[in-house]
Amino acid sequence: MNWSDSDKSVGAYALRLGDDALVLAQRTGEWIAAAPELEEDVALGNIALDLLGQARSLLSYAGETDGSGRSEDDLAYLRDEREFVNAQLVELPNGGFAVTMARLLVFAAYQYELYDRLRESRDETLAAVAAKAVKEVAYHRDHATQWVRRLGDGTDESRRRMQAGLDTVWPYVFELVESDDLVRDLAGAGLAVDPAELQGPVMGYVSGVIDEATLVVPQTSVRHTGGRRGIHTEHMGYLVAEMQHLARSHPGATW
Amino acid sequence: MTHSAGSDLSAEGGHGAVPTTGVPATSGRPVRGWPLWEVFVRPRRGLSHGHVGSLHAPDAQMALRNARDLYSRRQEGVSIWVVPAGQISASSPDEKDTFFDPAGDKVYRHPTFYDVPEGVEHL
Asked: How many whole angstroms separate alpha carbon A62 and alpha carbon B89?
């Protein structure tokens, strides 16, 4: 079979979206049995599983369209750190609960605007994945919104921690809405969404929540980037090692 | 941490709101920081909300969301109510005899003394 450049580009795009979802699913899963309350344990577990479901669809499609014939498992478990193209935001350590909620607020707001538009993609598979996922991420966004409001407008200590959480993730949020030739070309062809188009709506939503929470939008000129090119933070290698350990130690293991 | 005002109910044992009045407290401190909520789910249109369990949450909005995660993840329902457990007046186990035993020997309260004509459906 011949794979057109367009197919390969769609595959590369699906890989970015899939890696974002996969890596945040892995991170979020770390909260299971460690969340502040049992109920929150279940909520975060549900969110992680939603993200994992999105990752599976997107990675499977990436493997089909990029011409490599790799399965979702090949892509999740047999790539090295530098081959992952997720944004750095999702690989950051969970930190405290407020850091996790700050990240979820920004990331779910981004995913919501992205999937909402990707439903109109001319690529039927991407459109179908987006149509299903947009309802899931609307809930993730709501969950984070509820907590940011309560912690921000709570006690002095919860407010301090929530603001610190926002400050921690802020240098990483702009990478989500960066454009490059790949996404611009695909967006021009009606296949993908140009992330630059999302900056207004995402920041509009997030800053609205921050206002309601009586917090302040962090002011920083520091903007970390590079994830889409495989450049990651020092935390990524540990995450990949833990995620892949079983699959690499016991190739082909099933249960 | 928010404490439930006048919380005299417990979810110990997973049976929902159970009065603890008269039960000696082992400690003055609450076991959990969040108040208890009772959850009612309507399985589908046309049926009533039924009690499915209880949970802890800091307020009503979070209780609804926690209920969604805990009690509707397998499509169990189309509507959820949450009620502060402290707002439920529950019959006491001490009153079991006077409340329920008298109904035990009143078989005439069951509609079992009628002959149902053949061919009648939906009865």
From this structure: 57
